[in-house]
Structures are given as structure tokens and as C-alpha cells.
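User: Predict the structure for this protein chain, please.
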Amino acid sequence: MSKSILLVGAPVDSGKTRQGCLMGPDAYRTARIEGALRDLGHSVRDLGNVTPAASTTQDQAHLFALPQTVAWTQALSSAARAAMDDGLPIFLGGDHALSLGTVHGVAAHAAAQGRPQFVLWLDAHSDFHTPTTTQSGNLHGTPLAYVTGQPGFDAFPAVPHPVPQENLCILGLRSVDDAERAALEATDIHRHDMRAIDEHGIKALLAPFLTLVAQAGGALHVSLDVDFLDPSIAPAVGTTVPGGATVREAHLVMEMIHDSGLMTSMDLVELNPMLDERGRTAQVMVDLCASALGRRVFDRPTPRLL
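Assistant: Here is the predicted structure, written as C-alpha cells:
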């Protein structure tokens, strides 16, 4: 089924100290994301990059770039809510701090429609720290705590529509510190690490969550972090963790998402082109996005070797 897709650039580079993710949106464009989605029959509009307003938030010594991240959260929440009225937005990041705003905005839109919001978090990390528990001060590790209404985010916009914990699924975990592990174990968040994927297969873990979304008539936001993938196939990320998902596992996830027909919005995050190899990671991420929107293996003939 043809969809109206909106590309929204989110060159957020304030969520961590290692810079480079602000170039992510242009890397996706260079890797022909718009053309790849048009080739599938979708209507695609590139809305350009979001620009945050100047922030009046005060710096906090233990947090990196708090004012900028708050400003991005406000701007992206507004952009996400507006985009949801016109189609299926894909937010081109940018580091994972952008999801503070995108999930905030899509959840507000779902609430206005009387639909429950669900989130599928494809990531090596749980991103469940708060500004008071983070040791690094990097706010790209806080989005899931924020959107579920955890305390400690006084500098950020209020969260009138927190995502219920049982409506979240984290898939691909393999780097969780002790504080986050303790916090997660006290929640109802569905979470699956790489050992679970190895033991049970990725389909067996994802299918029940997609069934929950379907039964609830929910809106599904998919947040795909480059480090969900093994760094041997996707090196362009500043938080590499060995032992990630294979290309085939990742495509299966995307194909299952497409088959479900449930995805209503998507983040592509943590691409740092400064760390890439001739655009290799950007192309993998574009290919995965295309799989989530209908590309099949038979759509890409294998080139004949001479």
C-alpha cells in the first residue's frame, strides 16, 4: 500500500560529547533515501531540517549541552506532532537524544486520536538513564526514561502523555550498566538482549510485541539506532558494541514491521558519517528503512558477475 512519507531532518549533535551526527541527515539523503522509498511506490516529501529556537535553559555542570538538547526536544516534538497529521514521518538523525522530542510528539498525536502509543527500540543500549542517574552526562542515554515519565527531567517539557512501560520493547540489548539494569528490572518494559536473540531467534521475540500493538489498535514508533547492528557491518557510530544484529536479522525485523502494517513513525539515529567507510553504514540504514516500507529481497536482483 502506498504511503505518504515525510522526511524530517534532525541534525541533533548535543546528546553526547563525540561530534559528527549533525551530518547524518545529509548522509541519508546522499544515500538516496527519498529515491529508495519512491521506487516502492510511496509519495515522499523532504521537509528539510528542523531548526530549534534559542534556549533559555540554564547549563548544568554534570550534563553535556543541556540547553541545546532541551531546545531540540521542544522543536522536534512540535515537528513530529505536525508531521503525523500529514503522513508517516521518518526522522533522519542525529543522535538518539532526538527521540526525546520525536516520541514526545508522536505520543501526543496518538493521545489526541485516542490511540495508545507503542515504541520499538532497536538499540544496543536501553537509554533508560535520567539526568540524575547518568554518569557520562550524555543525554542520548535518557529518551526512554523521559517518555515514560520518569522523574528528573525538570528542565524538559512536561510529558502529559507518557508511554506506558508495557507498550515499550527494547530489542538488541548488549550494553546496560548496573543502574539502568536495576531500573529496568523494576519495570514492565519488554526487553531482549542478544543472548535471547541467539537462543530464541529474533522473530519469536518480536512477533508477540507486534501482536500486542495490533490488538490494542496502537500507533507504533520504531527507533532504529545504528548500534543495533554489529559494527562489522555498520561502523559509523560512536558507541560501537560488538555482537550486534546481523544484516539478515535486521532485515527480518524490518520485513516483519512492514508485514504488520503497524508502523506510524520512525527514527534513524546515531549515524556519524565521520566514522563511516565510503557511506557503507548510511546505505545499510537506508536499505533497512526501505525493508520496513515494503522492499522485498526479490526487488533487488543480484548483479551478474563478469
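The domain at 4-298 is CATH 3.40.800.10 (Arginase; Chain A).
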